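User: Predict the complex with iron/sulfur cluster.
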Amino acid sequence: MAPQHPSAAKLARVAKEAKACTRCPLYRNATQTVFGEGPVGAALMLVGEQPGDQEDIAGHPFVGPAGKMLDRALVDAGIDRRQVYVTNAVKHFKNEPRGKKRLHKKPNRYEVEVCKVWLAQEVSLVKPGLVVAMGVTAAAALAGRPMTLARERGKEIAFGEGRRGMVTVHPSSILRVPDKAGRHKAYAGLVRDLKLALKVLQAA
Ligand code: SF4
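Assistant: Here is the predicted structure with iron/sulfur cluster placed in the model:
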């Protein structure tokens, strides 16, 4: 059996603490905390916005339609998901019940801010060589300032002191593109960004 990373037990303790988090109201309307998953010491960390409907039920990040899109993009970029730590800026599913459905609601600045306590510990314990924020919510949480994709995408940026980062789209935004050609283009952009992340890591 491979030896456990020295920070793995600490991260497991943090994940357990997060399960009981009530720092903001989002826990009330969700099934459970969805903490990040992946190897401690992973070279690459991917950060999304928040768990979706299926993630909320399963208790695992990126297992729904956006997760399947991400899986496909990782394969196309030549990245093994099992080697990547995958998480979200906000750990509970913010939603609005509408009939039998629960509609996704964007977390507000307060919710993102208070939930950062968990993301910060994931980053500090996993110690990835590169953090890729998927979408502006994750990017702003990591950078501590408002971010726009148009300005920050396609280049290396800093997420806090010495933390190398990049920004790309959230896979769910690709699913929302109404036409096939647009979706194809948006997907190609995600794959291109992930390939660039791999290149940045390999050059380090
Ligand atoms: S969203 Fe984050 S801060 Fe709010 S209750 Fe859940 S884990 Fe705690």
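The longest strand covers residues 44-48.
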